[in-house]
Amino acid sequence: MTALLRIEDLSVDFHTDGGVVHAVENVDLSVEPGEIRGLVGESGSGKSVTSLSVLGLLGSGRARISSGRILFRGENLLEKDQRGMRKIRGGHIGLVSQNALSALDPSFTIGAQLVEVIRLHQNVDAKTARRAALDALELVALPDAVRRMKAYPHELSGGQRQRVVIAIALACRPELLLADEPTTALDATVQKQILDLLLDINRELGTAILIVTHDFGVVAHVCSEVTVMRHGRIVETGTRADILERPQHPYTQGLMNAVPKLRLSAAERAIPRSSRRLFEFSHDSISEGGKSNVSA
């Protein structure tokens, strides 16, 4: 099967007053059609930089992609100009950010923001766009969608706002969804609802999803394939079972050991809490990863 998204040898540098920071180094990553892949790592591991590079949304003028290719349906996105990328964003690749309140414009109603996205990417009139906007809100199971079309972001709960952000990302039925920490700001019950929603979208629409997360609970719930990053490099790639049950790289093993357990054995309770923390590994000990499962 041809990958829907293929990232090859991607390196991203940030040019700061203190020198060059190598945020992402020689990353290889692929997402197949209909797949849900998790990109996992601690804060600062380079996972968000990797995903935002796909859409050309690094933002800072100091960011530079120094090497690599990002292929979407065989086309190198790094060769497209801003006009070409605007057609890709939203129309073919949707983005779900981790902070829904900052992602939504407080000056416009939910319906107006959805209609704007739809009309930007599709040649439809306002009435058709409003119907599509309502369909998108119903797709994400937002209660009382007709009334919510007239609401402003601050009038919705955190979970409702996150559903709206997902609705906007899906409004034009993209083939790929990039979800950057989509449940971070939500309580446990709402987190599960959002993850179940992403699973439903994947099953019903066949949308491929790349989920950026630090949470192995998210990985266990929705991902079929997992890629682990550390210091801007991929250290291990495999199936969900490979990573959660049979991690090979010491860093991945350390991550798994750091996951809190609700039930500890007597022997585990005897271990001092400080000794249960994630092991620390030097940058030099981790080289670029390969397809399964590990790079030593």
UniProtKB/TrEMBL annotation:
Its main location: membrane. GO terms for molecular function: ATP binding. It comes from the Bacteria. It is found in: Cell membrane. It holds the Pfam family oligo_HPY. It is a peripheral membrane protein. Keywords: ATP-binding, Cell membrane, Membrane, Nucleotide-binding, Transport. Residues 5-256 form the ABC transporter domain. InterPro entries: AAA+_ATPase, ABC_Ni/Peptide_Import, ABC_transporter-like_ATP-bd, ABC_transporter-like_CS, Oligopep_ABC_C, P-loop_NTPase. Belongs to the ABC transporter superfamily. This is ABC transporter ATP-binding protein.
